[in-house]
Amino acid sequence: MSSQTNSPTSAAPLDLSKWRKVPMILMIVGGIGAVAGFFVDQHQFGFSWLLAFMFFLSLCLGGLGLTILHHLFDASWSVPVRRIYEHLAFLLPVMAVLFLPIAYLAPKMYPWMQLVKEHTPDHSIKEKFPLFTIPSFYIVAMICFAVWAFLSYKLRYWSLKQDQTGSVECTRKMRRFSAVGVFLFAVTLTLAAIMWMKALQHEWFSTMYGVWYFAGSMWITIFTVYSITALLKRQGPLREVATEKTFYYIGSLMFAFTVFYAYITFFQYFIIWNANMPEETFWYLARENGTWFQIGILIIFGHFFIPFLTLLRIDIKLSWIMIPLGVWAWLMHFVDISFNIMPVKHPQGFVVHWMDLACLAFIGGVLATVFLKYLNAHPIIPQKDPRFAEAMDIYVGDQYVEAATARGIDPKHGGNK
């Protein structure tokens, strides 16, 4: 990558000393704004906090999803960036604490809870029993965070253990947890998307909604991983291990999930609109009011066509253009999450409220602080991963196999037999 004159990593290292306090500043300023918003207007604060929470939750879940997929496919190219996945995933226990304002304000935010409290007859709620009950809302939240914390902890624990021992047992453990975890991940992510976002308009239903949130989560996380990897390579920690192949494959994943996201989003709309059933189409009709229609058009072009057409070229995946494209992806993901949440609060059109910015700043500052702490506390790359040589395009010949076998080391999987 360093040979590319237009590469985002080919320039001299940056002076980041003046940026070290940014997460703390975001926490302080955002925290003050969030606290003020809570006392000024709890209803608006609840929606602003939910918007910021679901935005950053998608980033953490994307890290867990990429970690699981890395082990399931026994990938080699992603070994140099695997630790970034793991640290992003291990932010999920922090997200459990940040869920508390939503848990407290849920009865004021979700209309179906008020209907349940008042024992108002509602066919949609009745048909979704027992999921749409107040106890189930909190039970589902506890289950989701327990599963995410367990998976992220175990995968990172055995990864760090592998750094110390190099034992093949560590690799096997991570693969086994991933094999079970992929099903738990799919179910809990879907429940979270349904209970915390789709339930804002409980009459509506979509069997694709969980997949939509998964696609968006993976999409934004891949762009984020590319930017973090490029920065770490430019600064030095990944200079020798993040190769052109690494960036090319991350870019290819960006392209794949750009198409996958567009496929899921379009066919969710197409199937519902083609059926023309009022109990389903009302969700889209509400998003044609005011400026929400223009936001829908922006998502079509900004979330799909711009990244799709940009990523078609192979050389673009190795160029400086990927960094501004990553910033654009964050903006489009924020708009997309707003499109799904905020029409309930602002039916007249898209609004960026000051509480939205405060909540985004606070949660982003907290997560950035914890992520940097993880990054500095552990080796930046897996130290004894059996696929590391392959990731570096280093051929392990027959002489090494014979020597490793003689020393009691499994040459295929790494570590002791």
Provide structural commentary.
The protein is mostly helical and 417 residues long. The protein has one domain. It is built from 17 helices and no strands. The protein has helices at residues 22-40, 42-72, 82-89, 92-98, 100-109, 111-117, 123-127, 134-165, 168-196, 209-235, 244-275, 278-286, 292-311, 322-341, 354-377, 388-391, 398-406. Helix 10 runs antiparallel to helix 14 (322-341). The chain is globular, with a radius of gyration of 23 Å. The mean pLDDT is 90.
Draw up the topology in text.
Blueprint: H1 22-40, H2 42-72, H3 82-89, H4 92-98, H5 100-109, H6 111-117, H7 123-127, H8 134-165, H9 168-196, H10 209-235, H11 244-275, H12 278-286, H13 292-311, H14 322-341, H15 354-377, H16 388-391, H17 398-406
Q: Identify the overall geometry.
A: globular
Give the low-confidence spans: none
Percent helix: over 70%
Report mean pLDDT, rounded to a whole number. 90
Number of helices: 17
Distance between the ends: 36 Å
- Report the strand count: 0
Order of helices and strands: HHHHHHHHHHHHHHHHH
* Range of strand content: under 5%
What is the number of domains? 1
The largest sheet, given as strand count, sense and whether it forms a barrel, is:
none
Radius of gyration: 23 Å
Structural class assignment: mainly alpha
